[in-house]
């Protein structure tokens, strides 16, 4: 973990985004959080991934998507952030397919019978 990554983690921990809803943040606070998240995501790609890393990257992309939406960023960029979050969830082994949904619902129904 490089020094800049650690500094950005501390900045995020101290940022108002950790304590307030996105709608309550000023434009400068939103922009600052956006930059911190982008740097954290960029830094996260430097190392080999563990399952925990993949889930953490998914969380970063999700937060970035929420922030982009609130800031009124280009909808295609916002969608890309959310899709990246989903892609990293799937990389972690979480199956988001309809087939998996059907399998789990079928199991629940068969248990109730």
Secondary-structure element order, N to C: HHHHH
Q: Biggest sheet: strands, sense, closure?
A: none
Number of helices: 5
Contiguous runs where pLDDT drops below 50 for at least 5 residues: none
E-strand count:
0
Portion of residues within helices: over 70%
What shape does the CA trace take?
A: globular
Beta-strand portion reads under 5%
Terminal Cα separation, in Å?
Answer: 52 Å
Radius of gyration, Cα only, in angstroms? 17 Å
Going by helix content, strand content and strand pairing, the class is: mainly alpha
**Mean of all residue-level pLDDT scores:** 89
Descriptive notes:
The structure is a single chain. With 113 residues, this protein is mainly alpha-helical. It has 5 helices and no strands. Helix 1 (3-14) packs antiparallel against helix 2. The mean pLDDT is 89.
Characteristic terms for this protein:
single chain, 113 residues, mainly alpha, 5 helices, globular
Short structural summary:
With 113 residues, the protein is an all-alpha fold. It has helices at residues 3-14, 27-44, 51-70, 75-91, 98-112. The chain starts with a helix and ends with a helix.
Topology at a glance:
Blueprint: H1 3-14, H2 27-44, H3 51-70, H4 75-91, H5 98-112
């Amino acid at each position: 973990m490089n020094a800049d990554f650690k500094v950005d983690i501390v900045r995020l921990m101290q940022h108002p985004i950790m304590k307030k809803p996105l709608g309550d943040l000023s434009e400068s606070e939103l922009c600052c959080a956006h930059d911190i998240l982008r740097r954290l995501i960029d830094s996260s790609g430097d190392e080999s991934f563990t399952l925990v890393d993949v889930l953490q990257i998914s969380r970063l992309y999700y937060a970035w998507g929420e922030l982009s939406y609130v800031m009124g960023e280009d909808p295609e960029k916002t969608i890309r952030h959310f899709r990246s979050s989903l892609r990293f969830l799937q990389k972690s082994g979480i199956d988001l397919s309809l087939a998996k949904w059907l399998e789990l619902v079928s199991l629940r129904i068969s248990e109730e019978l």
